[in-house]
Design goal:
19% strand; 2 domains; single chain; 10 strands; alpha+beta; Arc Repressor Mutant, subunit A
Length: 257
Amino acid sequence: MLVKQELIARIKDYFDLNMYETKVWLALLGKGIASAGEVAGISGVPRSRTYDVLENLEKKGFAIAKLGKPAKYIGVKPMIMLEKLENNLRKDVEKKITTFSNIKETKEFKQLEDLYKQSSNPVKRENISVALEGKSNISGYLKEIIRNAKKEVIICTDAEDMNLKIRLFHKTFEILQKAGIKVKVALSGDDNLIKQLRSNLKIKIKKVNIDAKFFIIDKREILFYLSKDTSKEDVAIWLNSEFFANAFAFLFEKTLL
């Protein structure tokens, strides 16, 4: 069985295997059932290494040893392995989330917070303007500044983007509404999706033809995206400038008249 190097390289990365493990697993999948000697001949892995590789694959669940002599092995179906790896990853993520949640209650974390608050040169938000890169970095920062709003939040983006972040916005809007903070939302995009978002988020949404993404907090802070090109890394600028945010909010509100 001849397997292209490109396929071997991709499968290796997809399933987090080393090169020999990948070649042996592919050999088993192609053969169905095979001895170590047969696997070595098919895969091109040195016979002296094949036994160790098969043992590793068996421990990881990629291969099953058939009872009897000589020992023969069966390659586990790719879909079964994919589902198993997904479940393992999900468990790992849930475990890490629990760990992070517990960290907040430790005395060490409280000491970290105190260290930040007692800084000899404390950071003042009004003195900061920053560039942000990456979806998770921007979303995390956006979540913080929106939830620190005191009076008003203005949001202008596209319907698809808001739909992708609907969980974040749903929870955030609930918090803002309970705090009595005014929320103004304007979306560009598909009319049906906008109607759906109005219903799901239970908030007034204006349809606009502004091809932009920005968020204005209390007419003092503004976060805006530099590009909507989804093929590139997201980049946004956050400014704590009452003059700029006020001017931007004024222009935005004029378009809604």
